[in-house]
């Protein structure tokens, strides 16, 4: 039995110890865990053994509902009131997050709400085809979130990443990735990232070398949350902490599962950022 403390412990490029365990069991297929062919085989094998849906970190929609409402959905309703808008879910896998999110933002209430359209993408064709069959009302694209050049700038009002950023091994790759996400967003759009890595806003999300940028940010820290008035190059961010279980894996035919008795012991982080215009970011810095 092997402990799994991160979804991307499987990736040699992820900056964790090594590509072991579950990844080694699929090594015979000739693809590393940063290759879609590897995940195609994982989904095929585990699907044959009954896998239908899976939530990395054990954080499904019920566990994230309050966080999503407070840090994503309500701010979006206030910013884009009465407008149709789209939400992009990256690295969507076979999570129910996309369908639950689509149902949540589509709920009717005492006041009119904008229509939210959820688009999900994953680089595994096996899983995107499976999800299209399961949810024909939603849009699932086979695409690598590390390269979103085919998506028009400003196409989305929100982007959600649960676990994908943990697959990115160094700051240079994370900077490029978050810059790509930023470009997909409208000004005022929101990005929500859920990860095991406590992201450093200035150094992880800026497209350039921001080693000293954190000294230029006004920040605060509490037991479970901290934030900045201005993030890096077009982001205004806050970050919070969640606690969840430790995951283990002992069988390549099924995904990792939570270890009993470890609930609430493993930290997970939520980074929520808004894309701000350059003029707004300059004004915010002056207000400091």
Description:
One of its GO terms (molecular function) is methyltransferase activity. This is Methyltransferase domain-containing protein. With 288 residues, this protein is α/β, with parallel strands linked by helices. It has one domain: Rossmann fold. It starts with a strand and ends with a helix. The strands form two sheets. The protein has a nine-stranded mixed β-sheet with strand order 4-3-2-5-6-12-9-8-7. The longest helix is centred in the first third of the chain and has 19 residues.
Main sheet record = 9 strands, mixed
Tally of separate domains? 1
The overall strand count is: 12
Mean pLDDT: 79
Under CATH, the homologous superfamily reads Vaccinia Virus protein VP39
Structural class, by secondary structure, is alpha/beta
Helix tally equals: 8
GO biological process, one term: methylation
Pfam families: Methyltransf_25 (PF13649)
Family: Belongs to the methyltransferase superfamily.
GO molecular function, one term: methyltransferase activity
């Amino acid at each position: 039995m092997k402990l799994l403390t991160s979804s991307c412990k499987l990736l040699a490029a992820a900056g964790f110890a090594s590509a072991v365990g579950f990844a080694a069991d699929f090594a015979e297929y000739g693809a590393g865990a940063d290759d879609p062919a590897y995940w195609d085989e994982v989904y095929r094998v585990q699907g044959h053994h009954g896998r239908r849906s899976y939530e990395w970190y054990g954080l499904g929609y019920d566990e994230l509902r309050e966080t999503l409402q407070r840090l994503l959905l309500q701010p979006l309703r206030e910013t884009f009131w009465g407008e149709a808008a789209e939400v992009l879910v990256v690295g969507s896998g076979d999570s129910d997050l996309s369908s639950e999110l689509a149902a949540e933002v589509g709920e009717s209430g005492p006041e009119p709400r904008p229509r939210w359209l959820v688009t999900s993408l994953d680089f595994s064709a096996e899983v995107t085809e499976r999800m299209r069959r399961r949810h024909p009302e939603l849009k699932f694209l086979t695409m690598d979130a590390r390269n979103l050049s085919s998506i028009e700038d400003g196409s989305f009002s929100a982007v959600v990443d649960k676990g994908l950023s943990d697959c990115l091994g160094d700051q240079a790759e994370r900077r490029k990735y978050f810059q790509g996400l930023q470009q997909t967003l409208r000004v005022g759009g929101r990005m929500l990232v859920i990860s095991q890595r406590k992201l450093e806003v200035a150094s992880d999300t800026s497209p350039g070398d921001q080693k000293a940028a954190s000294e230029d940010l006004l920040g605060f820290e509490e037991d479970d949350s901290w934030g900045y008035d201005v993030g890096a190059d077009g982001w205004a961010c806050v970050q919070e902490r969640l606690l969840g279980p430790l995951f283990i894996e002992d069988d390549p035919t099924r995904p990792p599962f939570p270890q009993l008795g470890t609930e609430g012991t493993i930290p997970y982080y939520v980074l929520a950022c808004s894309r701000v215009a350059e003029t707004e970011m300059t004004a915010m810095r002056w207000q400091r």
